[in-house]
Amino acid sequence: RAASAALVGGSVAIFGALRRLALSLPQPAAVRSRPGRVWRWWNLLVSFAHSVLAGLWALFSLWQSPELLSDIQDGYSVSGHLLVCFSSGYFIHDTLDIIFSHQSRSSWEYLVHHAMAISAFVSLIITGRFLVAAVLLLLVEVSNIFLTVRMLLKMSNVPSPALYEANKYINLVMYFAFRLAPQAYLTWYFLRYVEVQGQGAFLTANLLLLDAMILMYFSRLLRSDFFPSLRKGSAGRDVDGEKFLID
Hints:
One of its GO terms (cellular component) is plasma membrane. The protein is an all-alpha fold.
């Protein structure tokens, strides 16, 4: 446990260093001209780095040890354990970044999500159980790569509609493959096979709440990119106070 705590702390430090690096990178004119977007731009760059690293890491862990999928409750791999510690550090770092940057009010949904992720991952690290479930959930980071690219393109007003359009459809496919599908499978598995008591009850409740959040974000994404006529009250809205540009 002490070694795991050190790994989580090291991950927090790594993302702190990445944030400082992001601060030194040039920003698009559309971001510089809107002060409210500056923090969000830096934050998204760090989020993008985590998505690339964690998403590819989750794929590698499952490719390296496919037998893990047959034992979701008690399967274990060193790679998976390190990944959970790594991502725990990111969620802790992002939570602190939101709070100390005074973005809590506009990013409260993400604070809720991070609290769920941190508490669930800490329980996995302590007990050593359901590690495979965490790796499956972290496949979502593959989808987040394209979701974050979408948001960065939208914030920077990049003069390339074709690039945004291509990413829009790739993002939709990845959302189904790496977010909705693993989430649906784990929800089915937990409701069918996991005892609703102790850690199992806690993780099942987290999973069901995450289901609701994912479906809500998916509906926003569909309205924004594919059915803009269904959006309500978004015309002319100043989005500088929002962490992520869904609309």
